[in-house]
Specification:
Layout (H helix, E strand, L loop, with lengths): L2 H20 L3 E5 L5 E4 L1 H7 L3 H4 L4 H4 L5 H14 L3 E3 L25 E9 L5 E10 L1 H21 L10 H18 L4 E7 L2 H8 L1 H18 L5 E6 L2 E6 L4 H16 L3 E3 L2 E3 L3 E7 L7 H17 L5 E3 L6
Parallel strand pairs: 11-12
Antiparallel strand pairs: 1-2, 1-5, 3-4, 4-5, 6-8, 6-11, 7-8, 9-10
Length: about 325
Amino acid sequence: MTAQEKDSDLTDMHWMIQMLQTVDVGLVVLDSDNKILLWNSFMENHSGIRSSKALGSNLYQLFPHLPQAWLQRKLDATFKLGSPAYSTWEQRPRLFDFKSYRPLTGGSELMYQNLTLMPLQGADNTTAQVCLLVYDVTENAISKLQLEAANQELARLSRTDRLTELLNRGYWEECLNLEFLREQRSGGESSLIIFDIDHFKPVNDTYGHQAGDEVIRCVAQLLKSTARETDFAGRYGGEEFVLLLPDTPAQGALEVAERLRKTLESTQVEYEDLTLQVTISLGISVFSPDLVSATQWLERADQALYQAKNSGRNQAHLWQNQKK
């Protein structure tokens, strides 16, 4: 090799070292004993550990909080198979707990990372080292997470009544239809309750719609506190509310209705300098195999509600087949 060729090789090596040091990707080369052979500037800057300390150190001793079992499986597979391994931030948000320095409003305190484990072959074509590449993907991750959160919020708003934050009528009816189909298959005992606020129109006419809205919010809050996590509570329209009770027979539905009725009867609704008291009337219908549709199921509960109103209000009635 001539002197000119040696100078050219040295120049190429110098460029290569500069590139490895300045590239905006973390580069860590490990041998089969997890000893660090390369630690570039990206790793120095984000870890605070200088190359002079990192080189020759065991990676797990230098970072005792790394997920050693998970990482070692990937390293062993890369050494054994001689093929790259990958991990995205969706699978594991990060390997190294580096702080994020991206100027993002509402961003993450820690960096999101994608990882690549690249086999480096020696002269005998076996994998002698593995290069761990650490990519800072914080901006992309935050953007995706914010988009997903926005989509989830839009989905929530599309099925939520704005005033009460109960399920809106359209989404609640979807839940009712699904429960009806489930009951048709399983032959279970689910119930639904429909109720409205007694003499609500005079509240609006006398005290105004803002007071009426406060009454509706109060009723909705009591309904939410009464419902189980598996129940479906909704505002059906105006001062009318619905509660779908999966796997609940008639007696259980009556107990729920009475508990809600008594709680509301003893509750005072405060609005500005007003103290209001209201009652509710409730109709209950239990799923029956003779039902032909979810609409008919709801109609039976509505008929029971009419009976409750016609009998003096502030009471709960269970639908019963009058032809029997």
